[in-house]
Amino acid sequence: QVQLVESGGGLVQAGGSLRLSCAASGRTFSSYAMGWFRQAPGKEREIIAAITWNGRTYFADSVKGRFTISRDNAKNTMFLQMNSLKPEDTAVYYCAADSAPFRAAVPTRGAQFGSWGQGTQVTVSS
Q: How far apart are the two ends of the chain, measured CA to CA in Å?
């Protein structure tokens, strides 16, 4: 089991930027894909970005071109750079770790992730 701790959320005006971090501990970080999900009030949790153990990435259409996902295996940390933020990006953001090592394809379903962080609130004001 891996422990995940998100940080970097907060309140930002529309058009602004935030960088979320996800610090991992408890197992070999570099062997697993990682992902970012979000859940807005009254809505289902959705995946917004993921990165495989070897750097392949996925972005939801809603954030493509605005968000960037990256990882620093030396620091056991994943990042989500969020630019051009919109009010509809307001949500609790969660990082998640893949349950299987060295997955070839980018995981995009919540069921593929076995560990979750506690979440960090992102609020974008208009």
A: 39
